[in-house]
Amino acid sequence: MTRRVGVREVAQAAGVSTQTVSRVINAHPNIRDDTRRRVLEAMAALDYRVNNAARSLGTATTRTLGVIASDATLYGPAAAIAALETAARAEGRWIATAYADAEDAASVDAAVAHVRAQGVDGIILVAPHARTLAALTAAPLEVPLVAMHAGDGAARQRAGAALAVAHLAGLGHRRIARLGGPADWVEEAARAEGFDHAVRAHGLHVGARWAGDWSAAAGAALAPEIAAALRAPGGPTGVVVANDQMALGLIAGLRTAGVDVPGDVSIAGFDDNPDAAFYRPALTTVRLDLAGEARRCVGAVLGEAEVAASAPPVLVARASTAPAP
């Protein structure tokens, strides 16, 4: 077995001390540019791999952030993780990701144990369930904990949902229903709150409410029930859906049921996933500044005093919404 290249070999190749190599690895500011360049070139030539666990013994930091996610099969969490990785890399950090089933306490404990075993400098929760957030907030983690889409992030979720309602109201819709996500998700709670507040502010009539599991299949499965509600006297003329994937399934299911979108009902989604413009009809949806939210979370975990706030949500109007019939 070939022995792994160590700091000593890098130091010899670069003509510096092992202490200098360690300082370069840990981004010490008092290193001359030419010295740093020689060390980095030696590391590349020798294919030196940084051992985070060993480095943490001498620096009390691994330059790694832990990310715990509930479900990376959905667009929202997957996009959030990608944004966090980009934001962490910009700060000279890496991420170690673990997935937890919020319905299983042992799964959550295992995810936390996994990221802590990496010697992470902080933990970021992505799309957390309310009970997971509560449990981890109360736990003695010994490292900073930040929840994406909670706190300031939740305010943007609420604002985004309000934009969807305002858009439909501006098109003359007075009866608006909602298809939400699972009630125990922090994101769902914020989006539902934003919807409720906006409906009251615009003096609108709230139609029926349904709940799915964020998947396109859930939207399609609920389509017959929603179609019946749309056809009932005084039924809603618009539906705000809590994410784009459920909106996709709902539109497909309504088409099968003989309901035209947007001729009979307007549909608005949330997330502006990359495929939203290619739905038929193209989906009106809400776009969040995930990159900005990721930078905020990484900055908060790292204890940075000044982190630029993420941009406000934006309503992207497309063909799935039209004036009320």
UniProtKB/TrEMBL annotation:
Using the record's annotation, list all stretches that form the HTH lacI-type domain.
5-59
- Is Transcription tagged as a keyword? yes
Q: Recite the UniProt keywords alphabetically.
A: DNA-binding, Transcription, Transcription regulation
Cross-referenced Gene3D superfamilies, in alphabetical order? Answer: 3.40.50.2300, lambda repressor-like DNA-binding domains
Name under which the protein is recorded: LacI family transcriptional regulator
Report the source organism.
Microbacterium terricola
